[in-house]
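Quick one before lunch.
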Amino acid sequence: MSRFIVPKQAKSWISIPSDSDFPIQNLPFGTASMPNLVDGLIVPIGDKALHLVTLQEFGLLDQDVMLETFLDLDAVSLSKLRRRLFDLLEESNPELRDNKKARTKSLIDLKDVAPQVPIPPTSFVDFYSGVYHASNVGKMFRPDQPPLLPNYKWIPIGYNGRASSVFSSATPITRPKGQTKGPNDEAPTFGPTQEMDFELEMGFYLSHGQEPGKRITCSAAEEHILGLVIVNDWSARDVQRWEYQPLGPFLAKSFATTVSPWLVTLDALEPFRIEGMEQDPAVLPHLRHHGKPHFDIELEVWIQTQRMSKPQLVCSSNMKHLYWSPSQQLAHQTSNGTPVEFGDLYASGTISGPDEGSYGSMLELTWRGQKPVTMVESGETRTFLEDGDKVTMRAFGQGDGFRIGFGDCTGTIVASR
Ligand code: CA
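Model of the calcium ion complex:
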């Protein structure tokens, strides 16, 4: 499919702060509730947001598409819609700019918007494609073996997660209870996790699926992707350690996953495409692809405890540290003929970089609790997250004079109930 890239010099008639996540080059999509308007799709632009149903009511958008949800939209129609929105917002276009009634009604303050999960997912798959994360976990838990298991460079490792606990940004995260066990022969106990962690991940949503028995190839995969989001795959490490063998993660992961509010389209991310890291050994033919299937997207994690007035940066990473691309993940998922459908959510796995400051979980940042992180402002230390701690993840492609951002993906830990 052809991609619509907004020229980097393009400007909107709306004034946009230079550090905004949402310049006219971005135009991501979300669903939200807001005062005096029906719930529906909105598009942030600078400190404002466009309410698409209202634009439609004023005859400024295609009337055939339902814009309360993403249901009527695939990657192609979303791209067309985004192109039309660009036209309406471009500085020389008077259609919306000079239509005071339409402009006043459709353009709302972003701060008044309560974003929801872009699409409540029908299913959720979590991969393990961050090669530095996988290596770090291997070094910690299997110190006498090679860091990566023998299958790692042949298949994108993943598991089917739980869709019912995918939450919108800012949803409080209740500290889960679970079974944990000490290192000796004592019996396990049940109680609040003592090793509450985040996982810095990126994810993608499917626009349309595939029927049973067929597969989506690597070269067709991106046509099925509506857009990318940040994913925080909250984890209870002590629960995970006791339960994960032999079938993998279960309750240590299924209590909560937070996604960022805006679906950032692959069109907007075109300027940040990269080949990605070399895959050696060469992967099997059904997982091979050409071109630039990876993205150079900066990732950050910030923590603010209750005693701090502002958050502290604890991790700077990049989406380029994925060993397996989104296309390969989808091709692998469907390679056995499993059906997939609109709204399926796929998360990448924790994206750590090669250096200590780029690790995407507390497990790695503190190296299993051995090196606590110091909060400079308050003097507190953290091995894992405590009640009241707020975690904010950010992601952005840094262009020449503009930034394609994802908005904040936040969650605050609250005490077990
Ligand atoms: Ca994960």
